[in-house]
Amino acid sequence: MVRVKISVGFDEDELRDLAGPRSFERGQGYRDAVRSLEVADGWFSARVQGTETYEVEISADGADGLSGACDCPYGQEGNFCKHCVAVGPAILSRAQDVPHQRSAASSRTEGLERWLVSLPREELLALVREQVERDHELRRRLELRAASARRDDPTVRERVFALLDPVPFARYGCVEYADAHAYGRQASEAVAALRTLTADGRAALAVTLAREAMAALCRAYEDIDDSSGSVGSVAEELAEAHLEACRAACPDPLETAEWLARHLLGGDCDVFDPDPFDYREVLGTDGLARLRQLATEAWRRKPSGWAEKYLMERLVKAAGTVDELIAVYAADLSPTGETHLTIAHELEAAGRPDEALEWAERGLRELAEPHRGGSDLEDFLCERYAVAGQPARAAEVRRNGFRARRSLATYRLLRECARAEGSWERERPVALGLLREDADRSRPSWYGGPVLIDALIDDGDLATAWQTATEGQATPHQWLTLADLVRKDRPADALPVYLRLIDPLKKITGDANYQQIARLLLGARECHQKLGTAQEFADYVTALRAEQKRKRNLMKLLDQNGL
Fold first, then answer.
1. Are 324 and 352 in contact, with CB atoms under 8 Å apart?
2. If we measure between CA atoms, which residue out of 282, 304, 308, 283 comes closest to residue 294?
3. 392 φ/ψ angles, rounded to the nearest 5 degrees
4. Are the C-beta atoms of residues 340 and 377 closer than 8 Å to each other?
5. Tens of pLDDT along 442-489?
6. Whole-angstrom Cα distance, residue 73 to residue 182?
7. Fewer CB atoms near the end CB (10 Å): N or C, the chain?
8. pLDDT tens readout for residues 316-341
9. Nearest alpha-carbon partner for 440 in 407, 468, 409
10. Of 481, 495, 415, 401, nearest to 448 (Cα)?
């Protein structure tokens, strides 16, 4: 189980903050479902009856704060779930008894220890056998340890791969989200077994089994819903166990390099992504050279391959030159300009700014049309031109970007650069003319109105924006923005907008919709107040309340806003 923490001396407010409003409210409904609340060495344990019976553990250790864990799917992701919330108040209600319960639990633990020590060997074995019959996880762990102790390699291998077998958890042909954590917990036992082999001086066997285990887990992962990341965490531990075994066993560096290249270039597994330079001590000079050779051959065959590029980039960054790295990037230039920009950054970092600028300018020339207008590459160039005291060149980049993608964002970028150049007064009418052409050609859109209106609003030209809205296809959002901006000085114009926007909302339910109605009413009220027609607004609200009286949440919200 994954534990989450809150501060000592918690109360229900802290529970709410940690769990979130939804889990906290749902947890209140489970208070009566808490069963078997016990204390053991500082840990409260309880069962909560939900869809299934879930085990919850809550720690009240003053040194580490309060921590909670639950084996429900949501709790396994590290969340303080509704079952933990339910146990929290049960603990608080018994806070005065905690010292006594802890003392009693400690006494029980000490008594158990003394009794176990006093048992004859045969009785102790009988107890272990009884537990092994009941606890399958314990049985598997002991079987592995026994096989390893007697150097029964076939049995060790069989037990390791039995732990990685997903079939017992695949009820419908795959391991579903609810079962992934249990599978991951079992698979982690295989990792523990491999680490035990390494610790017991059998690292060479651990290396072999870890590689086979990684391949097995890759195959299994295709049919696992690992949204919680439980199995991915086990995969990381397995990769670490393999590296630890390699460091202890010192396998052949050339063979290790070849295995690592096959693994990294295979492209068949998304769950393992080791850094090749974590293996530099294992590989040594000869192994690293062999890995570089294999990576280079694969990259030359397929320069656009993701795995090939990643491995080459990593190796060259660690032990190559800037020019070698640029050659890797340049072999597969992206039409988005991202590769050109990466090269420019590498050259700048190497103290070669002129070459960096040349690559960025080349990227702009080769930039595909759909990616023009507000790209990172254009940002890079404009920043460098500004620093170099060349505002005209920056304005030209923004001008072309705006023409390629006419949006509010590119309009703002053009305005910023043109102002720096001192050309905005002549640039603005041209830009607005292009936006007006777009507005004239466009039809009403659910997703947005003419950029022209947004640009005029952004310029603060509210009179022209209002006039344009009355002529064109302004969206409700644009009308609302305009009404909010002009109502102080033009309440007679803004009022009809608010009332018009309220009408369609009357037919829709939902709290978000009700909040929007209240917002619009507040705007309308301010307009009426400025116009001296407060009674007219009161009559309107009275009629609205009568019409919408069945919507209790709306009525409550109107009351809260004094409407």
1. no
2. 308
3. -65, -40
4. yes
5. 644 434 578 999 999 999 999 999 999 998 778 899 999 999 999 999
6. 10
7. N
8. 888 878 999 999 999 999 999 999 99
9. 468
10. 481
